[in-house]
């Protein structure tokens, strides 16, 4: 068993980003393992899933303590996701082994990353437009068939790619249950993800390419990273960071689906231009990024009444 300190450092950075922004760790860690460290896609997925099995309960416990887990909704999601996550790994097993399965995992991972970027941008737009969501009734009416379908589809994707829990689940819940608060969506997803990731991790240990040293290397860095990121999340503007991370996921997804280097370079340049323009706009507007993104209320100026205004009030 070999502990890779460079992978641990990557885990620290990814864990910090997850704790700071709430983005799913699999969407960041798995492509880093594949693209930067040259880990075989199946081994990256297997090891990252087992690492996630130790990470999910930490976040779920925090949300359970705050009362932001809708257990009935989590149960219906898990009812669909747990068996389909195991089936996703069996699907990989049925393909065979060697280069063919690695190619399938790599392309599937890239495609899911691109979908995750689109979902993240949609969520950021809706958050900016709507602000803080309205609360829900105490008795949440569960839409059983669509909820099961969400759980089953995400579980299958997670079994193949280790990506999907987090951004994809939350954006789907946002459309299916628009009156569910954001904190409840995150807490519910984390709770249902524990048995789902457990199912996928067990299948990958049996049928996949699980490497204990790689998993421990991820955990050594990611656990303190998540704790540090979560501790400073309330003080940091996350909108710009999420935009930058979305750009990283976009480039990673394009690379994994074998887009030519020239095309990736053009996309990366466009992302830099857009992020730079957004930064300049924020600076020129005189508002902070947290106010622009709706994380903080925009201060309203209350000018002192003029003499004319004071006279008009006295006449009234």
Number of separate domains: 1
- How many beta-strand segments? 0
What share of the residues does DSSP label as strand, in percent? Answer: under 5%
Give the SSE order as H and E letters.
HHHHHHHHHHHHH
Residue-averaged pLDDT, rounded?
79
User: How does the major sheet shape up?
Assistant: none
Number of helices: 13
Give the % helix. Answer: over 70%
Shape: globular
How large, in whole angstroms, is the Cα Rg? 22 Å
Class by SSE composition: mainly alpha
Q: For the terminal residues, how far apart are their CA atoms?
A: 83 Å
Low-pLDDT residue intervals, each spanning 5 or more residues: 297-316
Keywords for this entry:
77% helix; mainly alpha; disordered C terminus; single chain
Give a structural overview.
With 316 residues, the protein is an all-alpha fold. The chain has one domain. The protein has 13 helices and no strands.
Question: Could you give a quick summary of the protein structure above?
Answer:
The protein is mainly alpha-helical and 316 residues long. It has helices at residues 5-21, 25-35, 41-66, 71-95, 99-130, 144-161, 167-176, 182-207, 212-232, 238-256, 261-285, 289-292, 307-315.
Helix-strand blueprint:
Elements: H1 5-21, H2 25-35, H3 41-66, H4 71-95, H5 99-130, H6 144-161, H7 167-176, H8 182-207, H9 212-232, H10 238-256, H11 261-285, H12 289-292, H13 307-315
